[in-house]
Specification:
single chain, alpha+beta, Amidase signature (AS) enzymes, globular
């Protein structure tokens, strides 16, 4: 019990439910861990310890209710939390305290989870490097000189260091997957609509989705069960009830392997680690085949056009935003109706091609990120394997090309570089087959055990 902070959420929920340990004890173990390690990594930026303690006392006094009864959770500082400061990583909202909860917060609380605080994010989640003018940078716990990724970087670090067993995040261009890869945890980008996201500015926008993060696939599955489900306030919310696949393992599954997603530059250190993934799945009985993909032109055009359009809608009326947000808004001002028509055609062609692809294969595996964690003082990656990149977005293509497919995609720990930096493998499934992605991820996780390697803090 001295290591309560590193037990899984599944195990903690069982211990609390059977009263072998109290919710207060579990919370205190995590608060102690936060006090010990957060000053080194800057992952949790707003802590509500007293409020959490009152909730834990109430949980102990009540009959266990909900699958996450008494389990601590942290929320990304992009999601509204009633009565708790929510800055969106922006100086414009440094003192903002919402009156209502985001739907993902509502559902986690309904499942019995206890909020301990908010996790760091770049301004408005803009980019896969967690740094902002309000709280500064979040550091990678495996090497404090490196980036934690983003935009759910604070969540990934809080998980990796045992500050919380569960955390929520969001993903437009890799913001759940990239930090999971950088920090040796698990992040799932669900099928759009699996977890409803409520946007007043762009209710039909499907590129950005909320989702779960944890240290194990089992915990991500548990959390997804709590936050998934229909909400009439979301126009594309999925009515189907999420349930894990009853089958275990990957024997007989058809797995496509792409080392570069169709010609992307990949850092040799990342490539060396991810290249070991096919043999793992083959050893478990899957049929693995290396494939040539044609994502690039259509995926690039669709993602960049729709992202720019969204930033204009969501942030075009704000003044004083940071340079990354301003750059995206300016791109949005340049989008024309013809651009949107072209992007819609590109995404439609891509969807049809991938539908045919998934007639042949059950899942696709590929690198999550094209690089391992980079120096924390660098604003972004400017070159990969000798290839100069045109802007701060380009190094995230291995993640954001997948975002336009309407597919579920997970990052699962795949190993470490020679100098000890985590690398994840990306598992991509057919639209709506989130459970299949998690099934493959859990089999891979259990076969390798990479996720059990803790940072040296």
């Amino acid at each position: 019990m001295s290591e309560l902070h590193y037990l899984t959420a599944t195990e903690l929920a069982r211990l609390i439910r059977t009263r072998q340990v109290s919710a207060v004890e579990v919370l205190q173990a995590h608060l102690d861990r936060i006090e010990q390690v957060n000053p080194h990594v800057n992952a949790i930026v707003t802590l509500v310890a007293e409020r959490a303690l009152e909730a834990a006392k109430a949980a102990d006094a009540a009959a266990p209710a909900g699958p996450l009864h008494g389990v601590p959770v942290a929320h990304k500082d992009l999601v509204d939390t009633a009565g708790i400061r929510t800055t969106y990583g922006s100086p414009l909202f440094a003192d903002n305290v919402p009156d209502v909860d985001d739907v993902i917060v509502e559902r986690l609380r309904a499942a019995g989870a206890i909020t301990v605080g908010k996790t760091n994010t770049p301004e408005f989640g803009t980019g896969s490097h967690t740094v902002n003018e309000v709280f500064g940078a979040t550091r990678n716990p495996y090497d404090l000189s490196k980036s934690a990724g983003g935009s759910s970087g604070g969540a990934a670090v809080a998980l990796a260091t045992g500050m919380v067993p569960l955390a929520d995040g969001s993903d437009m261009g890799g913001s759940l997957r990239n930090p999971a890869s950088f920090c040796n945890v698990v992040g799932l980008r669900p099928t759009p609509g699996r977890v409803p996201g409520l946007s007043e500015a762009a209710a039909w926008y499907t590129l950005s989705v909320p989702g779960p993060m944890a240290r194990t696939v089992e915990d991500v599955t548990l959390m997804l069960g709590a936050i998934a489900g229909f909400d009439r306030r979301s126009p594309y919310s999925i009515k189907e009830v999420f349930a894990p696949e009853p089958e275990q393992g990957v024997a007989g599954l058809r797995v496509a392997w792409s080392p570069d997603l169709g010609g992307l530059p990949v850092d040799p250190r990342t490539a060396e680690v991810t290249a070991t993934a096919p043999a793992v799945l083959e050893g478990l009985g899957a049929h693995v085949e290396e494939v040539e993909l044609e994502l690039g032109d259509d995926a690039e055009d669709a993602f960049r056009t729709y992202r720019a359009w969204y930033y204009l809608i969501a942030h075009g009326d704000k003044t004083g935003v940071g340079p990354n947000t301003a750059w995206n808004v300016e791109r949005g001002r340049q989008v024309t109706g013809a651009d949107l028509a072209r992007a819609e055609g590109a995404r439609s062609r891509l969807y049809r091609r991938m539908a045919a692809f998934f007639d042949t294969y059950d899942v696709l595996i590929a690198p999550v990120s094209q690089v391992p964690p980079f120096p924390v003082e660098h604003p972004h990656v400017s070159e990969i394997n000798g290839v100069r990149l045109p802007d701060y977005l380009a190094w995230m293509r291995s993640a954001y090309w997948i975002s336009v497919l309407h597919s579920p995609a997970a990052s699962v720990p795949a190993g470490f570089t020679a100098d000890g930096l985590p690398v994840g493998v990306q598992i991509v499934g057919r639209p709506f087959e989130d459970a299949r992605v998690l099934r493959v991820g859990r089999a891979f996780e259990q076969a390798t055990g990479y996720g059990s390697r803790r940072p040296p803090l």
